[in-house]
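Weekly modeling sync, notes
Attendees: AB, CL, MP (scribe)

Item 1: holo prediction request
CL wants a bound-state model with guanosine-5'-triphosphate before deciding which constructs to order. AB pointed out that an apo prediction alone won't tell us much about the pocket. Agreed to run with the ligand included and paste results into these notes for async review.

Input as submitted:
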Amino acid sequence: MNPCIVYLAQNTSKDLQYGRDSRSMLEESLDLLFENYNDQFGHDVLIFHEGDFDPISQKEIARGRKEIKFHTLKFELPDFLNPSEIPDKWDGIFGMGYRHMMRFYSLTIFDFLKNQGYDWFIRMDDDSFIHSKIDYNLFEFMAENGFEYGYRVITKEPERTSHGFSEMILAYIKAERIKPHTFLENFDASAKLNNEAFSMKGKIKRKVLSVIDYMATKLNHDLNNWPEPREWNRWTFYTNFLITRIDFWLRPDVQSLLHHFDRVGGGYKYRWGDHILQTAVTQIFLPESKVYKFVDWTYEHATVKNGKLDWGGIYPGKDDEANPAVIDFEKKYGIRKLNSSF
Ligand SMILES: Nc1nc2c(ncn2[C@@H]2O[C@H](COP(=O)(O)OP(=O)(O)OP(=O)(O)O)[C@@H](O)[C@H]2O)c(=O)[nH]1
Ligand SMILES: [Mg+2]
């Protein structure tokens, strides 16, 4: 195996998007990563950046940890998109850099890492923090169990930043005659009926629910009985931590969908994120048995606005509720998590 851990980073104490101290967060994230995991396993840690880490900063960040390697990237709008259709800031908030970041994790990263000779990777962000000791090799664990994609947390994506996405994916898999593994189970085709059934009582209720379940399963898996496109539940992998096998993403059928998504330009035009894409792709092309949810270590990824938790949070590992990071976080924000689950 030749795995690596990747970051995309910014050498600034006030990033353009959120005004956060990205540089300090990166240093803290790396310290926790090495202390709790990488001191033991010594995987390469690749830090991608846009040229803003000069040799001195690189040395300061690496602090002698020879696994840390910097790579410069040049972000550009792809040629096939018409720049006049792309807002400088989506919704007045999400700048070009942020949307280049989403494209990087939706498409470009897989070829890049493959060409560098890597076969697996973990993604970390500068605001991703591993708070408990992980004493087994995460990559070997994945490979030995036949998993291809792993995550720690799921988040409920707002409608506004996924508007039209599920319909686009449905149109694509329908036209391509792809039979998805579990993606369609995330549509509430029977939500209305379910609601009605829940107001019923006892035996009748159970009977109606079981018929609905049976019908939903049958419809969702029969290409000749395509379900009515209803509401997507928008539960998605929170991709600020992920672990995956690179060759999965290079499969021809997966690449076709990644490139289709890229050509639509939804990242730049509609702020469709890499996480909604990665969720759909894994649920279409991988059986559930190849997707793994980690629950055994404490993880933090929180978006804080004006001192208040706005998104994400801290996710205690099983049996790690007393982790000081969890207690501190709760003290600080009065809550552990928002719009997400583990
Ligand atoms: N080089 C570079 N890196 C970026 C840019 N925008 C974001 N990143 C990095 O990409 C990673 C993800 O960005 P975040 O701002 O954390 O994105 P996010 O997780 O969707 O947003 P939050 O949920 O609010 O944290 C972080 O490590 C950022 O530093 C950019 O314009 N340039
Ligand atoms: Mg983040």
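Recorded for review: Residues 8 and 48 are 5 Å apart (CA to CA).
Action items: CL to compare against the apo run; MP to circulate these notes.
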